[in-house]
Amino acid sequence: MPLEEVRAAYGRRAREYVERFGSVDAAAEEDRRLVAGWAAGIDGPILDVGCGPGQWTAFLHASGADVAGLDPATAFVESARARFPGVPYRVGRAEDLGVEDATLGGVLAWYSLIHIEPDGLGAVLAEIARAVRPGGGLAVGFFVGPGPAPFAHAVTTAYTWPVAAMAAAVADAGFTVTETHGRTAPGSRPHGALLARRRVVS
Predict the structure, then answer these.
(1) How many Cα atoms sit within 13 Å of 3 on the Cβ side?
(2) Tens digit of pLDDT for each residue in 29-58?
């Protein structure tokens, strides 16, 4: 989906989204464990790309991580700043992270790449790879399914990815995939998670 359409769609429903998903307690316990464990192994600053209501950024900040949130929806950033004072948030987009090369210890992209059209995912992952230092980490949460294939997400069109296809895209961007995870729950789409390390360029 074009960025402006995604930004506008989430802007219109920001209050509703914050009420439903604005606390990390709304996430599955195994997701909280996975993200916390991943972050504990990161050396350097973490950028929560597409942070939405900011709950994951605040969760990692409370655990002691050097983390900031980035989101294209101004309404989300303003809400996050008000709800989680002391945690840094800024308006920005995955296609242009606004940081110098190899300055991040890791990037959390938790369901923040789901609206990117398949032919644009490579460019976004390349931008993430540019920003993450060699040996740094990437954690991605996404919807698992055939394709990549579009579906009618509650907010705006999103895409499912086979785990192998998402892993291949991440590897093509310069990362080594170290873990993949999946789970299903009644009434929801299959969930996928992927952890990776930025390859060291010799």
Answers:
(1) 14
(2) 999 999 999 999 999 999 999 999 999 999
CA torsion sign for 52, 88, 28, 93 is: positive
Segment (H or E) for 35: helix 29-40
Q: What is the pLDDT averaged over residues 9-20?
A: 60
Looking from the CA of 163 toward its CB, the CA atoms found within 13 Å total 13
Q: Strand order in 104-110's β-sheet?
A: 89-91, 67-71, 46-49, 104-110, 132-143, 191-198, 175-183
Torsion over CA: 56, 58, 64, 65 (sign) = positive
61 to each of 6, 33, 40, 128, 169, how far by Cα in Å?
26, 15, 11, 20, 29
The DSSP symbol for 69 reads E
**DSSP class per residue in 94-109:** TTB--S-TT-EEEEEE
Cα(10)–Cα(135) distance, rounded to whole angstroms? 33
d(CA 121, CA 26): 27
Write down the mean pLDDT value for the chain: 90
Amino acid symbol at 101: D
Phi, psi (rounded to 5 degrees) for 102 = 55, 40
